[in-house]
Amino acid sequence: MKIHLTSVFVDDQERALRFYTDMLGFVKKHDIPLGPARWLTVVSPEEPGGTELLLEPSDHPAVRPYKTALVRDSIPAASFAVDDVRAEFERLGGLGVRFTQEPVEMDTVTAAVLDDTCGNLIQIVQTS
């Protein structure tokens, strides 16, 4: 068994697509209209056949309190692996990405947390 698809709830699918592709560097895999929303997924350009991230609309009534609680408690909605957290922190910061946590070393892990502009905190992680 392996993970095929996971999701983050986003306030605006188009803004999320721009952020996750233009800023984070993912590539669009699926964009299928579903009434007022879309089945919109992105993947890593390093693994185009790998795990897809669904940019899922935040329309369900349970989503807003859930997302609000995660952000309030500084809990990331997702975590992405990078080769060099400090380099990504500098690159993304240069693009205007807002970080809520600068790179922190914790034993064999270095992590930073950013705001995805769509209601989520996202962690980037480097393991050594």
For the termini, the CA-CA separation is 26 Å
Strand content: 35-45%
Helix/strand class: alpha/beta
The number of distinct helices, counting runs of at least 4 residues, comes to 3
Shape, per Cα inertia axes:
globular
How many β-strand runs?
8
The level of helicity is 10-25%
- Element pattern in H and E: EHEEEHEHEEE
Strand order of the largest sheet: 1-4-3-2
- Stretches where pLDDT is under 50 for at least 5 consecutive residues are none
Whole-number radius of gyration? Answer: 15 Å
Topology:
Elements: E1 5-10, H1 13-23, E2 27-34, E3 37-43, E4 52-57, H2 63-72, E5 78-81, H3 85-94, E6 99-106, E7 109-115, E8 121-127
Parallel strand pairs: 1-4, 5-8
Antiparallel strand pairs: 2-3, 3-4, 6-7, 7-8
Summed up:
It is built from three helices and eight strands; from the N terminus they run βαβββαβαβββ.
Explain what you see.
By secondary structure, the chain is an alpha/beta fold. The chain is 24% helix and 41% strand. It is built from 3 helices and 8 strands. Strands 1-4-3-2 form a 4-stranded mixed β-sheet, with helices on one face. It is globular. The mean pLDDT is 97.
Notable characteristics:
128 residues; globular; four-stranded mixed beta sheet; 8 strands; 3 helices; single chain; alpha/beta
